[in-house]
Amino acid sequence: MNIEQQDFYTQAILSMAALIGLASFLMLGQGRLLRLIFVFALQGLLLTMTAALSAYSLNNHHLYISAGLTLVLKVMFIPWMLRRQVLAMHMNRDVEALENKTLVMLGGASLMVFSYYVLHPIVQSSSTIMVNALAVSLSVVLLGMLLMISHRQAVAHVVGFMSIENGLFFAAIVATNGMPMVVELGIAFDVLVAAVLFGIFFFHIRTSIDSLDVDRLNRLNEVDQ
Amino acid sequence: MIAAYVLLLIPFLGIVFFGLTGHRDDTGKVNIGLNTLSFLASLWLAVKVLNIGSLYSADQAFLIDSFNVYLIMLTAFVGLTTSIFSGPYMAHEKELGKLNDRRLKLYYSMYQGFMLAMYLVLTTNNMGVMWVAMEGATLATVLLVSLYRTPESIEAAWKYFILCGVGIAQALFGTILLYYAAVQIGDSEHALLWSVLYENADKLNPDILKIAFVFLLIGYGTKIGLVPLHNWLPDAHSEGPTPMSAVLSGLLLNDALYAVVRNKMLVDGATQNNSAGLLMMGFGLLSFLVAAVFLHRQKDIKRLFSYSSIEHMGIMTFAFGMGGPLATFAALLHMTVHSLTKSAIFVTVGHAAQVAGTQDIKKIRGLIKTQPKIGWGLLIGTVAIAGFPPFGVFTSEFLVLLATMHDYPWLAPLLLLGIGIAFAGLFRHIQPMVFGEQPEGQMPVKANLWPVMIHLGLVLWLGLAIPDFLANWFSQATLLISGSTPL
Known about the structure:
Structural class of chain B: mainly alpha
Oligomer: heterodimer
Strand order of the largest sheet of chain B: 1-2
Number of strands of chain B: 2
Shape of chain B: globular
């Protein structure tokens, strides 16, 4: 079916999916931490808009609460906290030299294809929009992991971690019109606590290795020294 | 049902109380008191379930059936005995200057936080809440792993946080897919309730559920410590305070496996075959064999036993994966005896490390001369965990082996080989630690070994004769999980 033949809501959701996926790719290739955080906040904003749109179109009021939570947590609080850390560590001018940038981007593209492949079996039982949305959210999850693998700064790891949450949340909104309220509140609570804990950890890591480069956390391993 | 609410309320009040009052000299005792109350509440719950069968709360948010009620009791029991051990242990650590009042306050309130998360995982009927509670357990324990604030412990905690956080995110994706399959057949309000899903399991779309299970297994499997997702486990166990290692090994791993099995029951209902089980068998066997080999290379005593935990979780995952009544019964029994034995071992290991002043296996020698109680405790604990008769671990491993020979005979040699390798790996390290030449400067410590004796006594009892009511209980749970009973 052509995209022009879909109703407005479906088209909007598909565009949102594309933009959120694009944001993940932008983060993947980003070496500057402040820009990385900015793109992350942007992805959060897109997610808020998706939730609000879904709430409005489907007359599903509890999604407004989810949208509000996302706005406060993922667009304001977490980016603000990360930005403060970066400025405090004077890392805002550093450009992280990403190894094999081309390879990582190609890897990201193949993860996207892989997500479609994984979710292919459900094509028969679902509409196009579901398969697309689920595949994009799965690839946002996988791209978040790739981001964590390819970056060395703890701040980038947190961004990757939280963008994984973004991918999951997108799946929850689009495929199922949001999880039951108690679950969503629980997840938001977990994300909040995790964000606070990350802040505490930055402090500990800084005092222990005087840097936020997680490559230097390498004391524990199985290999004989 | 009041018992379940009481059970959840006690640790919650514990967090608030410890958070407000801070650390005082009697905080350890208050912690024991709270855990005793929780244990009594779990007994109350168990008696009710035994008498009238499965319980639902009015809004169906909580479900207590024969499967989870025995895990609740086990959790409360291990939580209680570990708290008895942790009081003097943490006081000793404070005397050594490793900890201060503020961190002990964190420790005690998060101990209760962890217990709350565990009870919530077990009692909830909502698969989404189960995920939230599982993540909550990570969040509660992550700061405890880095309690000593050494560079190693901070690294271990960071690894634990990131790996488990990312891992468990996969389980949330699985849960979303599960919900997606569920809303296609019914109302969305109750669509995540396990009891509703279980009733309608045959109507759920098998294709979606198969994909969902892969994510659920990877997600919760990270917390079970399945190879190759196990990297965080030895680090977190070796760098955190020992009571934490005891509850992580004894409880967290079990409860993560519980989550997987609950999901497997749904998937099996939808697919009408054991494809989910095969996946679990593969992961379980791989974990079992890899961990058995890794036992040989360990230098740190707590790392050694955390690999032993991975090995045993592998056996259980394998047995639940096989899914027949005998295998399921064996896996349930193994869950119990492993929890009891492993937490007892971590208690003795904690004392042994305090006696020697180090966790380095090479430097711990001649425990039986320095402090015979600890030496014997470690030796008997290791004998039990390695699967010697007459201890309970032998019984359950033997049953797993029987079930394997019946269903998948060609896997039985692999199991035997793994058990042999693991046995050698444990004893090459334990033998000199217990009997070797005693180094200078090794001093006896004040140790409370009652928890160890009670645990090992119970394991011995379960190995010699499983009491009637317990066997009944296990077979009821087996009936629920596998559809028929072995007895």
